[in-house]
Design brief:
The protein is an alpha/beta fold. 45% of the residues lie in helices and 16% in strands. It has eight helices and seven strands, in the order βαββαβαβααβαααβ. Strand 1, helix 1 and strand 2 form a beta-alpha-beta unit. The longest helix has 29 residues. The radius of gyration is 17 Å and the shape is globular.
Length: 237
């Protein structure tokens, strides 16, 4: 097992974030999750209220986590939202709202976490993107743009702080079975499945396993990478 670390997973109250946090708990790490409600994290994790669109809220959450668990050594930026609609129907708020959570929210949490990581000369930053960030998706110009931007973010962070012991990588899940995908019609899900070489949907556990590896001691020489967990649908784009 890797050295026990203090881990923060944003948006860890459901879906992929919850699965990632639970995996870290099971591996013996000190785990905190943020949620907008302040509840819903997995057993064994510290759940704190935070809204990633509010820098003061992010700072308060980190202060609470640092007091209870110590400085954050592993940050998994997972919090994200969708407001899907076609371009000509998309309001400016539909666009900026998604970008402010998915991209600027990531900026807020990474900036706050990086201070302690630089001091410790150790840090693992894992950004949860999406296969649509590279493939594109009709009706998701806002979401796809925000997720594509995380690649440039991680690679710039690698160039900026790689010499300080930090790594920054991106995981791009494909079609993963979660509460968010459960609401889709069977017809839509069948259409998606036809595009997946693996011929099945992924599980949140499979995404969590990739994150666990990137956060581990063994992944210290991997940075700026895009790790797809998509059954081959993105083919490394």
């Amino acid at each position: 097992m890797s050295t026990p670390r203090t881990v923060l997973v944003t948006g860890g109250n459901r879906g992929i974030g919850h699965a990632i946090a639970a995996e870290f708990v099971a591996a013996g790490h000190r785990v905190a999750v943020t949620s907008r409600s302040g509840s819903g994290g997995p057993d064994g994790a510290l759940t704190v209220q935070a809204d990633v669109t509010d820098a003061a809220s992010v700072d308060a959450a980190f202060t609470e986590i640092e007091a209870q668990l110590g400085p954050v050594e592993v940050l998994v930026a997972n919090a994200g939202i969708t407001k899907d609609t076609l371009l000509l129907r998309m309001s400016e708020e539909d666009f900026t709202g998604v970008v402010d959570t998915n991209l600027t929210g990531t900026f807020r949490v990474v900036k706050r976490a990086s201070k302690g990581m630089i001091k410790a000369r150790f840090g693992r930053v894992v950004l949860i993107s999406s296969v649509v960030g590279t493939l594109g998706s009709a009706g998701q110009i806002n979401y796809a743009s925000s997720k594509a931007a995380l690649i440039g973010f991680a690679r710039s962070l690698t160039r900026e702080l790689g010499s300080r012991g930090l790594t920054a990588n991106v995981v791009t899940p494909g079609f993963i079975e979660t509460e968010m995908t459960a609401v889709l019609s069977e017809e839509t899900k069948a259409d998606y499945k036809k595009q997946i070489p693996a011929a099945r949907y992924g599980s949140a556990h499979e995404v969590a396993a990739a994150v666990m590896f990137l956060a581990s001691d063994d992944a210290g020489y991997i940075s700026g990478a895009i790790v797809p967990v998509d059954g081959g649908v993105g083919m490394g784009n």
